[in-house]
UniProtKB/TrEMBL annotation:
Transmembrane segments: none annotated. This is Transposase IS200-like domain-containing protein. It comes from the Bacteria. Residues 247-260 have a biased composition (Basic residues). Residues 232-260 are annotated as: Disordered. Gene3D superfamilies: Transposase IS200-like.
């Protein structure tokens, strides 16, 4: 059975949640210590996180969870065509031009001007295509992966492919699959023995949320969504030496807006707001993320408690019984309490070869909607859910 087309997994005109994985080709190292060469690429992790943060400020895509590993990335993303539809033409144009200015100056991307914005706004056909791309997960991943590949190849002094191919995409069908997948992503460093607990798993969404609750702030990597005047751009190019222009652009990349935000301020909020309608786009007005809509029906405090408890269940069969205070979080989703640890720690075994992840009923419904009789792995997943 062939894997579904991208268009079958994510419809461009409706909100969908997916688990995306991008893996390096051969033995290339994204971050961490390469055992083959002894080089430490750990410094790339923060650059990659900041690139995700910057893209979250311009794309109509919510970043729900993420983990930057030694040779691959995990992201849980939600496309938001409803949010992009609410943006003005000028907002759409400046957001697109911040990522794709369309010109280079001494190999440094030029800042979009007011004239550039107006030219794009006046091209109605092009603008409509750009509006569609801003909520397209494939374009988000392209904007993330290509700069990483160029940077890595430049540092490694080589050419050729850095990623093994197009990123793997897996549709999340329901809240049960989303909770398990979010835990799996946040616990990747613990499973890989790179950290002992979520509190030490730097460069994961779980770590960011924990530190944010403790009051930690960071310099915002969000794009400055204000175009410069055409006159100012012309004077700068004529009168500013290339080295000075290069240093100025490098300094601005560190904190384009001059703002400081909560460490998790660029991530989608974890908890759904029950007082708003499900159709409410909940646009973010601070320019750090697409929207303020949550994605799970539990509080951040409860999520963190369950995350920490699950992290401790590293040995097969050890302490499998979920504590009474956390049982309601799991059982309300139909998950067998005794199988929660297995569902998260062995997420790849249950869902690794499947086009989707969720409860058996959710996986069956998705398979039928994409013209298939079943989704691979749904019978095995049924073991983790109460009859």
């Amino acid at each position: 059975m062939g894997r579904p087309l991208r268009s079958e997994q994510v419809a461009g005109d409706e909100v969908s949640i997916v688990h995306a994985v991008q893996r390096c080709v051969r033995r290339a190292f994204l971050a961490g210590v390469d055992r083959a060469t002894g080089k430490d690429y750990g410094f790339r992790r923060e650059w990659i996180r900041r690139r995700m943060e910057a893209l979250a400020s311009v794309f109509g895509v919510d970043v729900l969870s993420y983990a930057v590993m030694s040779n691959h990335l995990h992201l849980i993303l939600r496309n938001r065509p409803d949010v992009v539809a609410a943006w003005t033409d000028q907002e759409v144009a400046i957001r697109w031009l911040k990522v794709f200015p369309g010109r280079r100056i001494e190999e440094h991307l030029g800042e979009p001007t007011e004239n550039d914005v107006q030219m794009l706004v006046s091209d109605r056909e092009r603008l409509a295509e750009v509006r569609r791309r801003l909520s397209d997960i494939s374009w988000f991943m392209r904007s993330l992966s290509e700069p990483i590949a160029r940077m890595a190849n430049r540092q490694d002094e080589c050419t050729g492919r850095f990623w093994e191919g197009r990123f793997k995409l897996q549709r999340i069908t329901d809240e049960a699959g989303l909770l398990a997948c979010a835990m799996y992503v946040d616990l990747n460093p613990v499973r890989a023995a790179l950290a002992e607990s979520p509190d030490q798993s730097v460069h994961t969404s779980g770590y960011d949320r924990i530190k944010a609750e403790q009051g930690q702030q960071i310099d915002s990597a969000a794009f400055d969504l204000v175009p410069i005047t055409t006159k100012q751009a012309g004077e700068e190019r004529r009168n500013t030496p290339v080295d000075e222009l290069r240093n100025k652009k490098r300094a601005k990349r560190r904190n384009p807006t001059g703002k400081r935000i909560r460490r998790d301020g660029w991530l989608a909020p974890l908890t759904l707001n029950r007082s708003t309608l499900s159709s409410d786009a909940e646009l973010n007005r601070e320019g750090v993320r697409a929207s303020d809509k949550g994605f799970l029906g539990i509080s951040l405090t409860d999520y963190t408690k369950l995350l920490r408890w699950t992290a401790k269940q590293s040995e097969e069969g050890a302490g499998r019984k979920v504590p009474p205070s956390l049982q309601g979080l799991v059982s309300r989703l139909g998950i067998d309490l005794s199988m929660w640890r297995d569902l998260v720690w062995n997420f790849q075994r249950y869902f690794g070869n499947s086009c989707c992840a969720g409860s058996p009923s959710g996986m069956t419904q998705f398979a039928e909607s994409s013209g298939r009789k079943w989704a691979k792995g749904h019978r095995q997943v049924a073991e983790c859910f109460a009859a």
